[in-house]
Fold this sequence. Notes:
Layout: E1 16-19, E2 23-26, H1 48-56, E3 59-65, E4 70-75, E5 81-85, H2 86-91, H3 97-110, E6 114-118, E7 125-129, E8 135-139, H4 140-147, H5 156-169, E9 172-177, E10 185-190, E11 195-199, H6 200-204, E12 222-231, E13 236-244, H7 247-254, E14 262-271, H8 274-291, E15 312-313, H9 318-331
Parallel strand pairs: 2-5
Antiparallel strand pairs: 1-2, 3-4, 4-5, 6-7, 7-8, 9-10, 10-11, 12-13, 12-14, 13-15
Amino acid sequence: MQKSSNLPDARNGPFVVIRDKSTPLYIPHRSRNIAPDMWSDYPRSIPDHWHDLARGKGFRIDRRVRDRNHLALQCLTCGAHTAVKIAALRVSAVRCGGCAARLRDANAQDADLVFLHRDEHDHHYGVFRAACGHEVRRQFALIDRVRAGETGIRCGACLVAREEAEARGNGWQRIGTDPQGNPNYRLYRHACGHEQRIARINMRHGQCDCASCGESWSSKPSTIYLARIVLPEVGLEVLKFGYSANPKLRFKHQLGLSKSARVTMLRLLDMPTGHLACSEEKAANARLARDYPDSVVPHALYADLINVRSEIYTPDMLFRIEQEMDHIAARVPPR
Length: 335
């Protein structure tokens, strides 16, 4: 077999080898490490019963290739040639590389993509050109879900460009992903030079006051608090862990507590900005809810008594919440 100078990209697996510069031979992905010139003809006879096996599976044996263990089969449906092991022909279903390639290309087209090549390191992934012109790397299984209307294809390059434009429109510069790894946040730099984590949705809607030079609650001092609430009318005692610029005012006017409710402030932790207080408090409550779900008081028990939906814990969480506040105090400089 002559080697062709116009061999297709080997990443386009099952990659192909050109035989006599005209007929491609599709190679299984597990054999992609074999050099193209190793798939030359193997001049040995072909037993008659092998032909019967091939016809029964929709193929014609074209020739033997590489070594005594491999055949080149021609698909009776599309005419493509595929390399298979003789053992596989005997005991397994045989997949036509040409039919698979056509199906793959058609699936990509149905998902408004153009297939470019398979991923070099993981055969479950392919590289496609999206409608925007950018290349995206996606699982083939995801393409099937896109075709079924279950999800869509989001171009990462377009997403970054859109987020950069949103930031500029609000007086910010998008620096990069969230340093804490939250996919719903990005790191931005304000026109004043202050860098800040901001939720993507808040930047999109312009709800992103600077915690350094702004005038809203996010830039003003705040407090993380731990309070005990006793509701005698229902015999309920709980802990409330939250933040507020004025905790006393919050408990007096905003939580909707009855006149019989008894509130004891157990600890107050001053924070330099509302933005930082919000960030630290939300992260701490997320950890507590994740690690101690049985100590989170169900909302139904206090729905008509406390005007909040979360951050309410059983009294046994006192020590654990104080530990969280200790960790915050160690990280945050005093205001």
